[in-house]
């Protein structure tokens, strides 16, 4: 698309709401463009997510942007998500800039970062546009969050600064999609409206002919076309951005092959992070994954997983308040398998000393592993490799907590990845380990044996292939259900001149 010395074309995918489908449409466009031989990069100026990954350049970025890069067939890097906010509570977030944490901020103090972060975002986008043929940008939340418009760097603030045409995505499955699209446009000031070039209806089920009159009316009301109606398809997206996108179930488990299911309960804490670790389990035939927030929901589980956490001490206190700590400890005493990953591994320790994340000092852990945790000021970001069960494992690490194991403990702990195992309790700081097929099958076999289950993993399950197939399905959605010619013209030429302003289009004059 772009030639030597030319700034690559780009567009912004915005949404009427969070979880409207921005990530999916962005990934689909990246996949479709890559199939056309276009060297394309994803970009999200500012992301708020507890699901992150360590890119090959050593930076921490949003997991969704890493998977959009996979859809594009390119390596993820810091420029693709220059600002990442990782909530640690209801009012504060860790601010990660170009892959490195620079501090904590609440909603008010974050304003002081805005001008610097705006410059970082624009520089990162310019870097991508200089190195790729095209860039597909994803917005954050909704551009109609008018109380945040002045400092916006992710939606119309970015579009205005970089002169990006904007596609507005709406989720019809929620209902009210026409009102959401028209209302979003109408709440924007005229200069912002001038960049909204078209709409995409997402998650449509039903007869297209019944929808057509509404699409025509929306075009007549706004002067903008609907450039795509994407049908509802189950199980398309792994790597979601935050726990708001989680249902009670992560999704339908793969159908049993052996006739015996392995039941996995994942404790869903308020600040759960990197729960994408379980995605590879959900595609394993015969593994039934469910989330749990109460002790009785652990009953009958063959394996309980304590996943990552952005606030280990606070989430452990939440577990104690619900009796989940006692339920997990009782399982361990009875030899029922428990796995802790990163923050969950830290919870299994005897003591947790935290003057960094919570400032709580030293608090007792669950005491299920002979370990002690001390939080360090500097965050560990790494892409380790190792072996377990005779299988190669590639993973990534993102944590402040440093775990020390007492290898002389009478309970005879054994090494497990970078952590340890004692009896039927395992712990590791490594994220993404289950994506290694051989390791995953070996671990699940060990768990089934310890749990007394007849389950055995089916040979040949390939998580990378399953993920690639889902990304291909997103590319197919774009190819089959979007006006790709119109999208390419927008990227090359920008938003058409003279798009009408939809009232009110600005503040009410009194």
Q: Remind me, CATH topology of the largest domain? A: Rossmann fold
- Identify the CATH architecture of the largest domain: 3-Layer(aba) Sandwich
Strand-pairing-aware structural class: alpha/beta
Low-pLDDT regions? 247-258
- What's the Cα radius of gyration? 24 Å
- CATH class of the largest domain equals Alpha Beta
Helix content: 25-40%
The N- and C-terminal alpha carbons lie at a distance of: 48 Å
Strand composition percent? 25-35%
Number of helices: 14
Say how many strands there are.
Answer: 27
**Largest sheet at a glance?**
7 strands, mixed
Overall body shape? globular
Q: CATH homologous superfamily of the largest domain?
A: P-loop containing nucleotide triphosphate hydrolases
Mean pLDDT: 92
How many domains, in number, for the residues? Answer: 2
Domain CobB/CobQ-like glutamine amidotransferase: 263-438
Function: Catalyzes amidations at positions B, D, E, and G on adenosylcobyrinic A,C-diamide. NH(2) groups are provided by glutamine, and one molecule of ATP is hydrogenolyzed for each amidation.
Domain CobQ/CobB/MinD/ParA nucleotide binding: 12-236
Active site: 342 (nucleophile), 431
Topology diagram in text:
Elements: E1 10-15, H1 22-35, E2 40-43, E3 46-48, E4 52-54, E5 60-62, H2 63-72, E6 83-87, E7 92-97, E8 100-106, H3 114-131, E9 134-138, H4 156-162, E10 166-171, H5 177-187, H6 190-193, E11 196-204, H7 208-222, E12 226-231, E13 262-267, E14 272-273, H8 279-282, E15 287-292, E16 303-306, E17 308-309, H9 312-322, H10 324-333, E18 338-341, H11 343-347, E19 351-354, E20 361-364, E21 371-382, E22 385-388, E23 391-394, E24 397-405, E25 414-416, E26 419-422, E27 425-428, H12 437-451, H13 463-481, H14 484-493
Parallel strand pairs: 1-9, 1-10, 2-9, 3-6, 10-11, 11-12, 13-15, 13-16, 16-18, 18-27, 19-21
Antiparallel strand pairs: 4-5, 6-7, 7-8, 14-17, 19-20, 21-24, 22-23, 25-26, 26-27
């Amino acid at each position: 698309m772009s030639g030597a010395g030319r700034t690559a074309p780009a567009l912004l995918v915005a949404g009427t709401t969070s979880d409207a489908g921005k990530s999916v449409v962005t990934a689909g466009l990246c996949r479709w463009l890559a199939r056309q031989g276009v060297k394309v990069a994803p970009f999200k100026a500012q992301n708020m997510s507890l699901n992150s990954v360590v890119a090959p350049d050593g930076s921490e970025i949003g997991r969704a942007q890493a998977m959009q890069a996979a859809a594009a067939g390119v390596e993820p890097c810091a420029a693709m998500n220059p600002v990442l906010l990782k909530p640690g509570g209801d009012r504060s977030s860790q601010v990660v800039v170009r892959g490195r944490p620079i501090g904590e901020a609440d909603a008010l103090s974050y304003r002081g970062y805005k001008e610097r972060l705006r410059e970082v975002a624009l520089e990162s986008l310019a870097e991508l546009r200089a190195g790729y043929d095209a860039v597909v940008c994803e917005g954050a939340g909704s551009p109609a969050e008018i109380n945040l418009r002045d400092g916006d760097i992710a939606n119309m603030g970015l579009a205005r600064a970089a002169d990006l045409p904007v596609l507005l995505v709406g989720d019809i499955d929620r209902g009210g999609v026409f009102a959401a699209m028209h209302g979003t446009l109408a709440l924007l000031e005229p200069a912002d409206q001038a960049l909204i070039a078209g709409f995409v209806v997402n998650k449509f089920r039903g007869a297209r002919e019944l929808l057509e009159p509404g699409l025509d009316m929306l075009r007549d009301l706004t002067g903008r076309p609907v450039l795509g109606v994407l049908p509802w398809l189950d199980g398309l997206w792994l790597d979601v951005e935050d726990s708001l996108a989680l249902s009670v179930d992560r999704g339908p488990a793969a159908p049993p092959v052996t006739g015996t299911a392995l039941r996995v309960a994942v404790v869903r804490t308020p600040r759960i992070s990197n729960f994408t670790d379980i995605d590879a389990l959900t595609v394993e035939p015969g593994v039934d994954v469910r989330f749990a927030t109460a002790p009785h929901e652990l009953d009958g589980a063959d394996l309980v997983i304590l996943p990552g956490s952005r606030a280990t001490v606070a989430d452990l206190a939440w577990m104690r308040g619900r009796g989940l700590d006692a339920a997990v400890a009782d399982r361990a005493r009875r030899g029922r398998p428990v796995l802790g990953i990163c923050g969950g591994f830290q919870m299994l320790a005897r003591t947790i000393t935290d003057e960094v994340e919570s400032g709580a000092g030293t608090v007792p852990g669950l005491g299920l592993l002979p370990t002690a945790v001390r939080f360090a000021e500097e965050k560990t970001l790494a892409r380790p490799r190792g072996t377990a069960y005779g299988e190669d494992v590639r993973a990534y690490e993102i944590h402040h907590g440093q775990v020390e194991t007492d290898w002389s403990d009478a309970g005879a702990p054994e090494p497990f990845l970078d952590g340890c195992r004692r009896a039927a309790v395992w712990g590791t700081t490594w994220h993404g380990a289950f994506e290694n097929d051989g390791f995953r099958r070996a671990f699940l076999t060990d768990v089934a044996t310890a749990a007394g289950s007849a389950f055995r993993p089916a040979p040949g399950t390939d998580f990378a292939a399953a993920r690639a197939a889902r990304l291909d399905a997103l590319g197919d959605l774009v190819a089959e259900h979007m006006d790709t010619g119109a999208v390419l013209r927008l990227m090359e030429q920008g938003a058409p001149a003279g798009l009408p302003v939809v009232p009110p289009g600005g503040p009410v004059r009194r």
